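DATA SHEET
Item: assembly model
Revision: 1
Owner: S.N.
Input lines:
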Amino acid sequence: MTTASREYLTCKELVELVTDYLEDQLSAEERLKFEQHLNWCPPCGHYLEQMQVTIRAAGSLTEHNVPEAAQKVLLEAFRHFKTAQR
Amino acid sequence: MDALATQEQTEDFLAALRAGDERAFLSLVEQYHPTMVRVARGFVGTEAVAEEVVQDAWMGVISGIESFQGRSSLKWWILCILTNCAKTRGQKERRTVPFSSIVADGDDPAVAPSRFLDDSQPRWAGGWAAPPQVWGEERLMSDEMLDLVERAIHRLPDGQREVIVLRDVEGLDSNQVCSLLGLTEANQRVLLHRARSRVRAALESYIATGERGP
Amino acid sequence: MFAYRFLARGGLGAVNQFKWPLPEGSTPGAWVGPQADTTTLGVYAQRLSDLPYWVHDELYRVELRGTVHALSLGVLASEMRFVERVDGWNESLRRDFGKSCVERLRQCAAATHDEHGEPLIARCLMECDVGEIPQVLAATDMTRHEAVGNLLVQYLIDAVNVQNAGLTASVAHVARVAISECPQLAGKHHEELAQSQWLQHRLGLPSDTWQ
C-alpha cells in the first residue's frame, strides 16, 4: 500500500462533503476518508456539529397559529362548497 | 405530529370531511395551515402572497376531498396541491427561476475561502486558518437563535430556500422533495448543501459578532 | 474474519456516538449491521496496518461476517461484533505512542540537518527535552537553513504542540504528513509502517492475515 493511496482530505475539501456525508451519499471509500479526517482534526468535528445544530434548529422552528380571519374564510368556503354540492 | 397524521388517515376522519363535518375540517386546517404557509413562503415573494397561495390550495383541497382516494397520505396530497399553486403563482410573479440555472450557478463555496490556508502555504494548505469554534447548545435553541435561523432561511436564494424548508424545516425526505420540486437527487443535494452552509454561516457570524444581518 | 476497531470512551462510535454492543466477559457483543455507522453501505473495521489512522480512547478486537471489502484506510463488512477489548491500550500507552511519533520525527529532522552540514542544529534537536523543542528552536536562527530541513523542523514543532495538547491522533497525522512531504526521506523511512509496527509490538498483536 503506497502513501499515495492513503492521501488525506483537506479541511477545505471536507466542508464541501458534509451534506453528502449526512445524506449517506458518499462511497464507502469517501466516507471512510471523511471519518478519518475527523479523527485527527478537531476543528472539522466542530464544523460538523455546527451543521448538525443548524439542521436541528431549522427543524425546531415553531408552528404559528392559524390567524382567526383565515380560519373564518376557510370555514365559509368549506360550508359554501358543501352546500353547493347538495 | 405522526399520531395525528395517522388519525387523519382513518376512514372515519375522511368520511367526516366528506360529509361536511366542520370540526374535522377545522382540525385539518389547524394541523396543516402553518406548514403550508411556510412552504408557500419558500416559493413566493411575501408573506401576504404566501397566505393567498395557501387559500387557493385550501380551495383545491376542499373541492378535491370527495375524490381523494387515500392512496397517498393526506399530508402529501395537500402538499402537492399547495406546491402546484405556489409554483403557478411564483411563475406569474416571474420569481421562480428554473432550477437548472440555479444549480449551474458556479462557485458557491460552503465556507469563505479566506477561512483556509491557501496553496502557497508550505504546511497545511487547505487546512483551517480561522477554525470553527464549539457552540454551546444551551444558547442555540433560544428564541433569539431560532428567529435568526428563520430570517437566514428567508434570505436564501429561491431554490435553496425551498429545499431547506421542505427538508429540514418540514421534515420531508429527499424523494418527496425531489418529486414536489421536480429536481434530481443530486441537484436537490447541491441546493440543500448551499442552503445549510449559508444558514450555518449566518449563525456563526451572529455568535461571533452579535450582528444579525438584514 | 477478525479485525480491530477503535471507539470513543464508553464504547461509542467516534463520529456518531453509536452505542456499540460490547463483549461481556468471554461473550462477544451482538452482531450489528450497516445502520450502526449511519450508512447503508456496511460497518467499518480496521486492520493492523490501519490502526495508526484511527487512534482513539478504546481498542477492541472485532469479528466480521458477510461481504467484506478492503478499502484504503480500513475494511467494510456487512456485519460486525465486538469480541474482546484490547486491554493493553490505555491512556498511558496512548501518550507513549504520541511520544514515539515525535521521537521518530525528531530523529529525521536531526539526521537531515546532519546530512546537510548542520551538526550543531542536529545535536541541539536531539539533546533537548522533547516538550521544549519549540522554545529551543525559536531561539535558533532557522532562516539560513535549507528549505526542506526547515520544513521538517516546522512539522516537528507542530507535532510537539499537538502532543502537549494530548491529541494523539493528530500527532500521528502530523508525523505521517511530515515524512511523506520530505523527498529526502523517501525510501529511508516509512512512518505509517513504523507506527503500525510500534502498536503491534507494544500491544502484542498477531500479524495480520489481510493482504
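QC remark: Confidence is low (pLDDT under 50) at residues 1-5 of chain A.
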